[in-house]
Please model this.
Amino acid sequence: ATTLLAGTPTRPAVDEAVDLLTQAKALVAGDAAVAATLERARATQTDLARQERETAQAKARVTEAGTLVQRGRSHVAAGRFEDAERDLAAAFQLTPSDGAIDGELRAVRRVLDDKAQAGLRAAAQLRLEEGRRATVRARACHQAGDVVGTDREISAAAAAFTLAAKDGAAPGTLPEVVADLATFRQEVAEARTRAAAAQAAISAASQAVESARAAEGERAQAAKTHAEAQAVVVRLTRDLATAPLQAKAPLWAAHQARRSSAEAMADADARVENHALAAWNGLAVLTDHPLRAAAAALLADAYQRRAAEAEAREDEGGIRTNRAALRRFDDGSRAAILDAPVVLTVAGPATRLMVRRLAPGADTRLAPLGDPVATLAVPGNTALPVGHYHLQSADGAVAAVYLRPGRPVTLPWPGSAPAVPGVAFAWVARPEGGFWLSTTEITQEQYLAFVLAPANRTLVLDQVAALRRGEGAELLLIPRTSARVGVWTPVPASGAPTDLTIPAALAGTPVTSITRDDALAYATWVSLSARVRARLPTASEWEYAATAGDPSRIWPWGGVFDGAFTITAQARRNQPAPVAQATYDIGPFGHAGLAGNVREWLAPAADAAEEGELTGAVAGGSWGDDRPETCAGRMRERVPADVLTPAIGFRLVVEATP
Model:
């Protein structure tokens, strides 16, 4: 056995050695060397058996692999690359060290990968087209207002685009269509937001219109109640005129009912406006919605009614405000009311007037602008739109007129101006009666002619002489700071005066420091010497000369105050200025200095209640005023009729001759 195992024994030799050693061990059971040799022989026998098995298995694998390779090549030739890949993969698994099989397997797999990628790209393209079609359908549903269909098709498009992007085989145009879908989704969301807002606005507007209509009905009922209460007040006022107080309780109750109904009317009218405006504004983006038209009609009715009420109470501001609001909400059905012309009639001697619109100029003062809108032959009339107009004749006479809605106006136009030496007059064309008003305040020079007239000269000079002699005389007529201090200079400087002169500083300025009686005396002297009817202007005459009855003409030149236009403290004046310097303070009929320089005495009012010592009245502003309101055309102030101040002068009215 030992000899058989020497060297590199063969399998038969090892098998025989194992048999011999087995017999030897049986003969000498306790011999360790025999047992160890048997053990090594058996291990060798096992190794050789394993090697033989492995060799046989390797040969079988090579054979099977060869078969698989041949079959795989057949599949390749037939174009069955999936089958070829399966057989070649199995062959490579049997013989992983065979490079040739590995190369063929790799080539087949590359073909399969190319085919798979091509398939993925084709599938992705199909899904892309499917998504596009779904997007088109979604847009159509959105256009038709189909919310469910829009959502369904958007979801289908999104799913198709998601599948198209899977496995990295998406077409290059996929980002564009995905972005387009995202944009469309945003448009849909915004449209739904707008639709929801619009629906909410429509619902709110519907409620507001209904509330406005209900308030309109309440107002109509309150108006009826108010008319009935007014009738009761008129009747009871007549019937209980001489009744004792304790019997007049029904009249007081009627007055209370009238006030309550007026308040109810005002409250309902305000609610009509508030609710209708809420509906109008709430539907600002739905301009064609019927509810907006209904709200506009309610507002137009309300503003037309208010404009008529303002016209009845001669509230010019209310007229303008409500007519402007009516024009905004009118649908054209009230054009005849808004645009109806007003007839202007001018009566007087034959002449021709150029009519232009009045509007604020570059310096904010009202001025005639543009070409004439009409040429009016006097006497005659013309129809003009509501507004402010400037009239001028060939001889330079001017007038302003404000034409109100539905109110024809007749103006008197003058003949020749009154011939008063040294005094110029401008005509004030007032509908209820025109008059001549001196273009400036009466000046020192004009007044001096009155003081030194033959009828007054001796009296005045005797007064001055008596004061010089210390005889306690009191000065009358002449400008004076007190009963004993005159403003003018006596000539000569001492002794009995033979003349009076005006200090150089007062040349051309308005005469001041005279009482109202002095001004009235001057008017009487002019009346007698010039054979005219001269007097001081009344309060209403002075105001009309300054405003032409136009509520928007707050100051003689217009509705915007600028201190630089006036001779006042705002223009840094500290004394009266020559009347020729009032070049911007010009009224609607051409009169200068109405707002500044000096305030002006008004005629005594026959029905005026005296307020203590304040028995006189003045109009306009003076050089010492620093507030715009004191220069307004409607400015009045009560003063003592005998006050002496350098801030008060006067101008003269000459009545028109029949």
